[in-house]
Amino acid sequence: MLYVVIGYLWAAILLYLLLGGADFGAGIIEFFTSEANQSRTQKTLYRAIGPIWEANHMWLIITVVILFVGFPAIYATMSVYLHIPLTIMLLGIIARGTAFAFRHYDAVVDDMQGLYNRIFVYSSFITPLFLGIIAGSSVSSHIDPMATTFLDAYVYSWLDWFSVSVGLFTVTICGYLAAIYLIGETASHGERQRFMRKARFMNLAAVGCGALVFVAAYAEGIPLFNWVFGNWIGLTAISAATLSLVLMWYLLVKGKRYIVRVLAGFQITMILLVTTIHHFPNIVLLKNGGYLSLLEHRGHDKTIESLGTALLLGSVFILPALFYLIYSFQKKAHAPLKQNF
C-alpha cells in the first residue's frame, strides 16, 4: 500500500503541474499580450480555464494531505524550513483566484478592473516561481536542520541561484503549457497563429531557463547532469521528450490542435520523471549529506494502509466527476449560440 500512496503523491504533483501550471500560464500569457489584444485573450482564457480553475487546487490539497498524513517528518521539515516561499506561493494562489473572480463577475466596470488585471497577471507569475523554488530547494541540499541563525535556517535554505533558476524554469513551462492548450480554444486562423507565436516564445524561454538550471547546478555543486543523463531511464525520457517536441511542432504546422496537448503533457511528464527518478525514494536532500526518504520516513503502517484505501476509494468519486465537469463545460463552450426571434 505504501507504493500506492507514493504513486498518488507523484500523480498529484504531476496533475497540479499540468493543469494548475497551465492555469497559471494563462496569466503569464496575458502578461505578454499587447493592450490591443488583451480583450480577445481574456475571452479565450475564460473559456479555457473556467471549467477547472478552482478544481486545479484539488491536486495541491491532495499532495499536502498525503505528506501531512503519510509522511509527517517530511511535511514538518518542508513547512518549517521553507515556510517563507510556501507562504508567498499560497498568498499568490489566493490573490490570483480573488482577482480572477472579481474581474469576471464585478458588475461595475471602473478603474478597479485594471487593478484586478495586474493582480491576476503578477500573481500568475509569482505563484509558479515560488512553486519551482520550493521544488528546487527540496533537492538542492541547502536545507540545514542544524542551522543556528534565522538566515541560515529560513532564508538560505531556498534563496540560491539553483532554486531561483528552477522557479524561472517552472514559470516558462507553465506559459508554454498554457499557450499550447489555448491554441485548441481559438476560433480563427489569426488567433491560432498568435498563440502559436506565444508557444514558440515560451518554448525558447523554457529551453533558455532549462540551460540556466544546469549552469546554476554546476556552480553550486549539484550533480544535476548526472541525475538527468547518468542512467538509461533519464536518457530515454529526455530522448522521448525531445522527439515528441519535434513531432508536436510538425503537427501544429499541419493544423492539428488537440493531439499537441497530449504531447505537451507528455513532455512535462518526462521532465518530472527525469528529475525525481534518480534520487528516489529520497524526496528532500539535506545539507551535509542528510535526506528524507519516502520509505524510511513514512508514517505508521496502519496510517499508510488507511491513507491508501482512502485515496483509492476517493478516486472512484473524484475522477469521474472531474472528467464530467470538464466535458460539460467544454460542450457548453463549443455549442452554437441560440438566437431568439
Automatic annotation (TrEMBL):
Q: Does the keyword Cell membrane apply?
A: yes
Keyword Kinase included in the entry's annotation = no
Q: What is this protein called?
A: Cytochrome bd-I ubiquinol oxidase subunit 2 apoprotein
Q: Which GO terms describe its biological process?
A: aerobic electron transport chain
Q: Where in the cell is it found?
A: Cell membrane
Per the record, the similarity remark reads:
Belongs to the cytochrome ubiquinol oxidase subunit 2 family.
As one GO molecular function, the record gives: electron transfer activity
Task: State the organism's lineage.
Answer: Bacteria, Pseudomonadati, Bacteroidota, Cytophagia, Cytophagales
Membrane-crossing ranges are 6-32, 53-74, 80-99, 119-141, 161-183, 204-226, 232-252, 264-286, 306-327
Alphabetically sorted, this entry's keywords are: Cell membrane, Membrane, Transmembrane, Transmembrane helix
Topology in membrane: Multi-pass membrane protein
Q: May I have one GO cellular component term?
A: plasma membrane
Entry's Pfam families? Cyt_bd_oxida_II
